[in-house]
């Protein structure tokens, strides 16, 4: 289900505890892929970094893909910092690991990913900044 209503977004943010960040960066020069997860971590969320080029981030082991995250880690939300052409595959992986929410960062949209995730019962947010929405609704 594509979510646009601020109250529903607030509910997602309140219920989410663990966020897998696909395209995570440990480089402050990389912009949002660095500072959004860092901000969310500082706000109390557990951040699971996903990037095949890194081994750790924000005190957590970094995984090459969503499918590499152990089943013992329950991922509530998958937050995407990848180009739109990669999002449908990320949506499939989010479904496979049992995530509840697929969140595409500002400027990222994918009708195919919305369909994949929605058909599997995930809530979907697209083209919104997770950090800005958190600050606006809960900050």
Automatic annotation (TrEMBL):
Cross-referenced InterPro entries: CoA-bd (IPR003781), NAD(P)-bd_dom_sf (IPR036291)
SUPFAM superfamilies listed in its UniProt record: NAD(P)-binding Rossmann-fold domains
The CoA-binding domain, residue ranges: 12-108
Pfam family name, one: CoA_binding_2
Domain of life where this protein originates: Bacteria
TM helices/strands, residue ranges: none
SMART domains assigned to the protein according to its UniProt record, in alphabetical order: CoA_binding (SM00881)
Name assigned to this protein: CoA-binding protein
Classification of source organism: Bacteria, Pseudomonadati, Pseudomonadota, Betaproteobacteria, Burkholderiales
